[in-house]
Amino acid sequence: MSKKIVLSGIQPSGKLHIGNLIGALQNWVRIQDDYECNYFIADWHALTSQYADTSELKEYVKDVLVNCLAAGLDPEKSTIFQQSRIPEHAELHTLLSMMTPLGWLERVPSYKEKQLEVKDKDLNTYGFLGYPLLQSADIMIYRAHLVPVGVDQLPHLEITREVARRFNNFYGEVFPECDGLLTKFPKVVGTDGRKMSKTYGNCIFLSDSSKEMEQKVRTMTTDPQRIKRTDKGDPELSPVFQLHKVFSSKEEQDEVAEGCRTAGIGCIDCKKVLIKNLLTLLEPIWEKRESFLNKPDLLEDIISAGSNKAREKAIATMELARQAMGLKN
Q1: Confidence class of residue 54 from pLDDT cuts 50, 70 and 90?
Q2: pTM exceeds 0.85
Q3: CA dist., res. 191 & res. 240, Å (int)
């Protein structure tokens, strides 16, 4: 039996951080043996908020590709490609825009949330309003069955199901209705205790050196109750302990939590344990990153081959879509 088709992408809107590693890349690597996986660098999506300044977009695309490979994605197992090299994404997006009710886009939860959250950019554009529809086109053009998401992201996937259903009702069965491939994404907090995000400037980047990573951890905010070394605290109030929940063993979590509650250890000691575990995770990735960064021709060969392979699939789907809509003689 043929494998089910998986589609997922990541925006090159900045350098990738350890939250991206935990929330996406590690999961992509884990499932690449079980499904027909298609992973793309969503550079058109990055333009929904970064349209005014694209000077660093090329470097961010490279950063995403290098980190995907360093994290363990295998071009022999997964199709790795760049969205903007597949013009059929834009064609399908245009055709879908003709039949998608405006209200469907306006009700997407992140539409108003991001407009309120992002104050330094004008997001009153069609590109921002219509990004869920471009996302639907990304999924549908590969006729994907599954999209890796957390439970909180299922509402975002529902619009793709509705668009596919509407297309099929009008023109006949062309697109499967995708399902979420549910994955538990651990919450990765940033150095200030909020969700790790480039928007907040609180990230530990995969491109950081060991010294930069250690400096960021050492200067992280901790439990506000522990002003002096002898003060007892509550580990749940410490952003450092939230990172322990992701990167440290259960035994280590129990030890630092007890040490915090009893003042048995100081915040510096707590951070040293976290730094050790981050180094264990990141050092192999850093080594592979350097290897790929020193081989620009290989990087181009990988993204070019993956994009060519993806485009063959996209062209085949557009043939079906055009024929169904009566756009082909």
Answers
A1: very high
A2: yes
A3: 8
* Neighbour order of strands in the sheet with 78-82: 78-82, 36-41, 5-10, 146-149, 179-182
In whole angstroms, what is the distance from residue 150 CA to residue 157 CA?
11
Active-site amino acid positions: 114, 195, 198
Residue 162 is inside which H or E element, if any? Answer: helix 154-171
Q: Domain check: are 35 and 66 in the same one?
A: yes
Give the Cα separation of 191 and 197 in Å (integer).
Answer: 10
In a domain, 202, yes or no: no
Q: Kindly report the CA angle at 178 between 176 and 180, in degrees rounded to 5?
A: 165
pLDDT at residue 90 is higher than 90: yes
Cα–Cα distance, 309 to 81 (Å, whole number):
8
Residues 181, 272, single domain; the answer is: no
DSSP 237: G
| pLDDT digit string, tens, across residues 262-305 | 999 999 999 999 999 999 999 999 999 999 999 999 999 999 99
Per-residue pLDDT tens over the stretch 61-72 = 999 999 999 999
Same domain, yes or no, for 226 and 172?
A: no
Helices 57-71, 267-293: inter-axial angle, 10-degree rounding: 100
